[in-house]
């Protein structure tokens, strides 16, 4: 048995579809805008899955940060309980260049992170603050600029 053939509408190749339409003004402005000379001081990474898998994904990035040629520290604030000294060793991180800090009753993770950033003794301060409000993010950006460092917040889901 044969079925009647219904012709499909013609399709434009992927890039021709985009080229056929004029670029939206907002996109054109972004593309034409000059690059900012000021580097971003705040980044956020969201990981979901088993804790062990998330740590395995973080290991190479943290290893690279721990081996920076900067004389300052890599500071880890409020990491998950599974990120231990033995995990740092097994992951190959340079533990001589890492400060591992936990918040206490006097200071929250946000306050501790802002203080570490403002002091400028760390090239990168990695925090595990979740949720991170827009106001808290702005505090981290301001503190990172003051201390000439980088802030990286990791959200584990």
TrEMBL record:
It comes from the Bacteria. Keywords: Transferase. InterPro entries: Cell_div_suppressor_SulA, P-loop_NTPase. GO terms for molecular function: transferase activity. It holds the Pfam family SulA. GO terms for biological process: negative regulation of cell division; SOS response. Signal peptide: none annotated. This is CDP-glycerol--UDP-pyrophosphoryl-N-acetylglucosaminyl-N-acetylmannosamine glycerophosphotransferase. It comes from Pseudomonas helleri. The lineage of its organism: Bacteria, Pseudomonadati, Pseudomonadota, Gammaproteobacteria, Pseudomonadales.
């Amino acid at each position: 048995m044969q079925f009647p053939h219904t012709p499909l509408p013609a399709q434009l190749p992927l890039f021709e579809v985009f080229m056929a339409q004029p670029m939206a003004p907002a996109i054109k402005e972004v593309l034409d805008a000059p690059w900012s000379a000021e580097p971003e001081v705040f980044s956020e990474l969201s990981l979901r899955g088993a804790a062990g898998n998330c740590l395995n994904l973080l290991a190479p990035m943290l290893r690279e940060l721990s081996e920076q040629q900067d004389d300052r520290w890599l500071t880890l604030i409020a990491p998950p309980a599974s990120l231990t000294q033995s995990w740092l060793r097994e992951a190959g991180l340079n533990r001589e260049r890492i400060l591992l800090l936990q918040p206490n009753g006097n200071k929250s993770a946000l306050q501790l992170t802002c203080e570490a950033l403002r002091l400028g003794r760390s090239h990168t301060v990695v925090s595990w603050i979740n949720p991170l409000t827009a106001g808290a993010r702005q505090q981290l950006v301001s503190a990172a600029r003051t201390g000439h460092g980088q802030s990286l917040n990791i959200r584990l889901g």
